[in-house]
Amino acid sequence: MENLDDLLRNDEKVYVTVFEKRTAEGKLTPLYFVWEDNVRYKIDEVGEVRRAASTKAGGVGIRYNVRVGDKWNYMWLEDSKDGDRWFMERK
Fold it and tell me: Where along the chain do its domains lie?
């Protein structure tokens, strides 16, 4: 029988460290993120920003469509009782 930690683990969701800019008005722009390999990736462009769910990894938050190089990916700012955390879906 699997233990509770194994059942709750989601291999599709990766929590990432994000370096961000916030304006005095409260607008947030992600600048870089650190992936599981501890490499920092520069976000070259931010596209659509809206509240959405991750159907692959689970979770809800503000979804940012970000471009790194020539690839577009989603990242979420997930609101939780322990504070906001950034996550991305594992490919």
Answer: 4-89
